[in-house]
């Protein structure tokens, strides 16, 4: 690949993987910061004890910061929870569930009412309050149980008072509807081995536990749980902890039901309680005493669809335990692939729920982006077992502590790093950052924290910084957006402003945010000491360039910071010239960042498109697929392919790109048939190569069209011949497109072949739509 210049570099695979997803992560954490920024929102006051005021029902997590808080008179310590979904196989519905919850609480302040969350539930039997528990047989009479559906609370009005310092037990029976939704306790229908089936599962985050059982549904109100599930004998019941007893009970009609009792949970938030009642099979293995089971449809288990997920889960657990120096505290972990589940995954402690696509991989898919996606989602949810479950944010406005840190370890677990947290670990050094995280986890285990608690632990280490950690990080987590740095290298001036779309800016808009920004940079290939921009504009004499065209500056080396860079024309011309003469003088990730920045600056009205194209003239010498992938996604977005093909710009785009694509195309066209196994574990390279080859054929590169025809013909001659999966979609499509009705008929025949798997069927359907003859398309 050629010699490397001096400076700071990261490995090629880490570079490709990290850079490809980093910008998406920036956007994700930008959204999180905007929604949950704790410094910008004031928490609503607790409702009145006697008459809880109205509050809008919380939409999904986005509005959780505005939800009314419970009064702090009672602190939950323990739940005894029985849940009975009245569902039998083949039952048509409607469906319901009932239950009983006994909540042990400590009274912190004298009160004449007990207020807790309840939404959409009906009372079942009389509510009662036992205690003080120090007085055997004592009780406090309940005068009235009121449900405030708008405020999502239940209020137990008492004839006596609960006294501070004493323990009491709140006893409530409840009933609810079991519907085919995706929140609270829900029912899901699916097909397994040709038979219609259904299961019951739960999704409690952020505020849906109150839809399943009356509870103190706030993340800081942690407690332990004893859970008992009554269910049909043909199903198995799962919860956060291992089952310790299975018995039987008869209902009022004499029908037999199974009772599964689970071990006492660790101290946790209500949004992490979880239930699954299903007719699934599982595969299992044990890692360091942690029994890992992956549950899925029987057909999926039989066909090995979750084997890959099982193979990686234990090693990711071990990796996280080792790097954090904090053991996983549960004896088991169930991962369940739920058909139709809305989120990619939900990190319930000990019972993680996934959508099927996030956990399943066809054994025949040796080369697929799906493996990378599975590794990513599993790593993220396992990261939450520490960040979110063991230590939980005090309130939803610090949700980024859960999501940001889980994302960081998601991409470490799958060989990456992530946005604000990545930047933080960069200027602290990863060793100090991990040391601080370990200290933070150990202090707040089974408890709650806010972002200032994390800053305190990071500040414990003596790191030379321009301001306290809290001040630096508040500038990133407590305001909207992220910055763009504009350079004038004649004077050495660096100016920051919020990165915004100038094309859509209104005259009344105000963008005055300022960040404390760590700037990693290099000059003429040599890395320079880290410097900081802590005001809107600052002059750095060391960044002034001379008149020599060989004197150049590069900022944000290896994408270590959370910002865009807008260079002046002098430096851009020098960087463009350098790329044409010696592209390896700039690290691969920095080449990616440089070009991606300029395309983003073009889209948002900072620079003309000619500036971006100037930086891509060198591409004939670019051999990194992840950089090519970024360029092609910017110039030929997937959703605009059909539009661009019929646009007047297409011939110009074709001419511009094809002569630059030829060198790397010829390398990989020869590489794929002979050495494709070398890409077996490089999932992102597979995806990038698939996009590259598809674009080459889309642009009409004759060599690509010929290769597609050749491989398609070889497949027609011998249907057992396997076209490499990463180019199969392209070969099928263009084999049909440049062929005749014979190729189309063969694709149709193979589509109807009984042995075709689902993915091949999808590819063949797509391929048949590539036919150029309209009469074929209308058959």
How would you characterize the overall build of this protein?
- It is a single-pass type II membrane protein.
- One of its GO terms (molecular function) is zinc ion binding.
- It is a single chain.
- It contains 21 helices and 32 strands.
- It is globular.
- The protein starts with 11 loop residues before the first helix and ends with a helix.
- It is α+β, with helices and mostly antiparallel strands.
- Strands 1, 2, 4, 5, 6, 9, 12, 14 and 15 form a nine-stranded mixed β-sheet that branches. A five-stranded mixed β-sheet has the order 17-18-19-21-20. It has a four-stranded antiparallel β-sheet with strand order 10-11-16-13.
- Helix 16 (683-698) packs parallel to helix 18, helix 18 runs parallel beside helix 20 and helix 19 (741-751) runs antiparallel to helix 20 (758-768).
- Helix content is 35%, strand content 23%.
In short:
Helices cover 35% and strands 23% of the residues.
Layout of secondary structure:
Elements: H1 12-36, E1 74-85, E2 95-107, E3 111-117, E4 122-123, E5 128-130, E6 139-140, E7 142-148, E8 153-162, E9 167-178, E10 184-192, E11 195-203, E12 224-231, E13 236-239, E14 243-250, E15 256-262, E16 275-278, E17 281-287, E18 290-296, H2 298-302, H3 307-324, E19 332-338, E20 345-346, E21 351-355, H4 369-384, E22 391-393, H5 399-413, H6 419-428, H7 430-444, E23 447-449, H8 451-459, H9 469-477, E24 483-488, E25 493-498, E26 517-519, E27 521-523, E28 526-527, E29 531-533, E30 537-539, E31 553-555, E32 564-566, H10 569-581, H11 588-603, H12 609-615, H13 625-635, H14 641-645, H15 650-675, H16 683-698, H17 702-717, H18 725-737, H19 741-751, H20 758-768, H21 774-777
Parallel strand pairs: 1-12, 18-19, 19-21, 22-23, 24-32
Antiparallel strand pairs: 1-2, 2-9, 3-8, 4-9, 5-6, 5-9, 7-8, 10-11, 11-16, 12-15, 13-16, 14-15, 17-18, 20-21, 24-25, 25-30, 26-29, 27-28, 27-31
Helix pairs in contact: 1-5, 1-11, 1-13, 3-4, 4-5, 4-16, 6-7, 7-8, 11-12, 11-13, 13-16, 15-16, 16-18, 17-18, 18-20, 19-20
């Amino acid at each position: 690949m050629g010699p490397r210049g001096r400076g700071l570099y990261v490995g090629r695979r880490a570079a490709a993987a990290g850079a490809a997803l980093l910008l998406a992560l920036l956007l994700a954490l930008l959204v999180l910061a905007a929604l949950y920024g704790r410094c910008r929102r004031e928490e609503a006051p607790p409702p009145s004890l006697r008459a809880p005021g109205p509050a809008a029902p919380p939409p999904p997590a986005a509005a959780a910061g505005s939800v009314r808080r419970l009064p702090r008179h009672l602190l939950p310590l323990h739940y005894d929870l029985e849940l009975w979904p009245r569902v039998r196989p083949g039952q048509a519905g409607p469906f319901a569930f009932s239950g009983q919850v006994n909540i042990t609480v400590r009274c912190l302040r004298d009160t004449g009412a007990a207020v807790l969350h309840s939404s959409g539930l009906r009372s079942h039997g009389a509510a009662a309050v036992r205690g003080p528990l120090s007085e055997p047989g004592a009780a406090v009479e309940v005068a009235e149980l009121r449900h405030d559906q708008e405020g999502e609370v239940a209020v137990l009005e008492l004839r006596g008072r609960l006294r501070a310092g004493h323990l009491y037990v709140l006893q409530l029976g409840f009933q609810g509807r079991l519907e085919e939704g995706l929140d609270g306790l829900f029912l899901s229908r699916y097909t397994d081995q040709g038979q219609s089936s259904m299961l019951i599962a739960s999704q409690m985050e952020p505020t849906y536990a109150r839809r399943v059982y009356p509870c103190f549904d706030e993340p800081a109100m942690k407690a332990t749980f004893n859970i008992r599930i009554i269910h049909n004998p043909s199903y198995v019941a799962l919860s956060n902890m291992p089952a310790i007893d299975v018995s039987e009970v008869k209902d009022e009609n004499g029908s037999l039901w199974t009772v599964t009792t689970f071990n006492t949970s660790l101290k946790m938030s209500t949004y992490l309680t979880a239930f699954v009642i299903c007719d699934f099979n599982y595969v299992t293995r044990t890692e360091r005493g942690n029994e890992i089971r992956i549950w899925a449809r029987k057909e999926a288990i039989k066909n090995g669809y979750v084997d890959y997920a099982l193979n990686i889960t234990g090693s990711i657990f071990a990796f996280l335990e080792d790097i954090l120096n904090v053991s996983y505290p549960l004896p088991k972990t169930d991962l369940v692939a739920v058909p139709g589940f809305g989120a990619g995954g939900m990190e319930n402690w000990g019972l993680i729920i996934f959508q099927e696509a996030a956990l399943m991989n066809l054994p025949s898919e040796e080369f697929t982006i799906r493996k990378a996606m599975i590794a990513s989602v599993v790593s993220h949810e396992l990261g939450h077992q520490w960040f979110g479950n063991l230590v939980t944010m005090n309130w939803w406005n610090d949700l980024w502590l859960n999501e940001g840190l889980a994302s960081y370890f998601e991409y470490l677990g799958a060989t990456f790093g992530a946005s604000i947290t990545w930047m933080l670990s960069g200027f602290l050094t990863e060793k100090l950052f991990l040391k601080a995280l370990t200290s933070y986890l150990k202090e707040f285990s089974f408890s709650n924290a806010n972002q200032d608690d994390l800053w305190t632990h990071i500040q414990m280490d003596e790191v030379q910084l321009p301001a306290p950690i809290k001040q630096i990080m508040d500038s990133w987590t407590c305001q909207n957006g992220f910055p763009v740095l504009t350079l004038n290298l004649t004077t050495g001036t660096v100016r920051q402003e919020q990165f915004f779309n100038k094309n859509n800016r209104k005259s009344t808009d105000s963008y005055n945010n300022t960040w404390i920004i760590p700037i990693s940079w290099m000059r003429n290939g040599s890395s320079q000491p880290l410097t900081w921009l802590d005001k809107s504009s600052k002059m750095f004499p060391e960044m002034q360039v001379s008149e020599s065209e060989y004197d150049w500056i590069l900022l944000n080396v290896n994408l270590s910071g959370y910002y865009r860079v807008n260079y002046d024309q002098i430096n851009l011309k020098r960087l463009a010239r350098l790329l044409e003469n010696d592209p390896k003088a700039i690290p691969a990730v920095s080449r990616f960042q440089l070009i991606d920045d300029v395309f983003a600056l073009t889209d948002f009205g900072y620079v003309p498109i000619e500036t971006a194209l100037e930086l891509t003239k060198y591409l004939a010498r670019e051999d990194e697929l992840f950089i090519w992938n970024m360029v092609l996604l910017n110039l030929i977005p997937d959703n605009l392919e059909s539009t661009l093909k019929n646009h007047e710009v297409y011939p110009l785009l074709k001419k511009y790109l094809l002569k630059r694509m030829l060198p790397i195309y010829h390398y990989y066209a020869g590489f794929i048939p002979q050495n494709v196994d070398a890409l077996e574990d490089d999932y992102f390279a597979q995806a990038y190569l698939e996009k590259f080859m598809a674009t080459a054929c889309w642009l009409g590169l004759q060599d690509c069209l010929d290769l597609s025809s050749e491989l398609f013909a070889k497949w027609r001659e011998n249907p057992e011949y396997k076209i490499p999966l990463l180019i199969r979609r392209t070969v099928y499509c263009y084999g049909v497109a440049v062929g005749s009705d014979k190729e189309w008929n063969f694709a149709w025949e193979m589509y109807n072949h009984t042995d075709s798997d689902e993915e091949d069927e999808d590819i063949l359907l797509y391929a048949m739509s590539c036919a150029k003859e309209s009469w074929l398309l209308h058959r």
